[in-house]
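Q: Given only this backbone (174 positions), what sequence would you predict?
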């Protein structure tokens, strides 16, 4: 086994990687049978809220029922969210902030996802969560990307929607 120097052992991870690793731990609490996501909201370099994907409070989770309604119906990922029992990690982080009166305006959201095999899932939040993030006033979203961190500026999502408000429909062939 290779020995590392004291200096190397004390090396601090960069902040984006640090916060994504915390979101990864939060994702371990997720109750979805398909994927596990965790999210944290950071403001002024302090974590003000966290959330993971799962059924609403006091309702049965898919992991407890050992069934996923969307899987039973053969629905692909990213489709028919209204049939899902769960609330997304991003939404739960925003909701949890509101429950305790935490200010998320101009905060940064870190989102980590993995599939059931532990493989990292990269990508930006779904369109419903993007809407919530915009309305909450969060300024950036950070996700894992090819072993590093990728930053999305929320103002760019707004610019994209203003440029072509029907882009998502066109991409689906409507």
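A: Predicted residues:
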């Amino acid at each position: 086994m290779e020995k590392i120097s004291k200096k190397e052992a004390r090396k601090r991870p960069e902040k984006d990687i640090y916060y994504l690793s915390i979101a990864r731990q939060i994702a371990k609490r997720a109750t979805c049978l398909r994927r596990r996501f965790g999210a944290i909201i950071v403001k002024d370099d302090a974590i003000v809220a966290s959330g993971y994907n799962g059924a609403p409070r006091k309702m049965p989770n898919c992991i407890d029922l050992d069934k996923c309604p969307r899987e039973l119906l053969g629905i692909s990922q990213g489709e028919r969210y209204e049939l899902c029992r769960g609330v997304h990690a991003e939404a739960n982080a925003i909701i949890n902030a509101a429950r305790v009166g935490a200010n998320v305006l101009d905060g940064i959201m870190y989102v980590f996802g993995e599939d059931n095999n532990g493989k990292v899932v990269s990508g930006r939040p779904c369109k419903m969560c993007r809407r919530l993030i915009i309305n909450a006033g969060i300024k950036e979203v950070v996700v894992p990307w090819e072993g590093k961190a990728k930053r999305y500026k929320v103002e760019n999502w707004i610019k994209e929607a203003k440029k072509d408000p029907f882009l998502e429909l066109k991409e689906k062939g409507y």
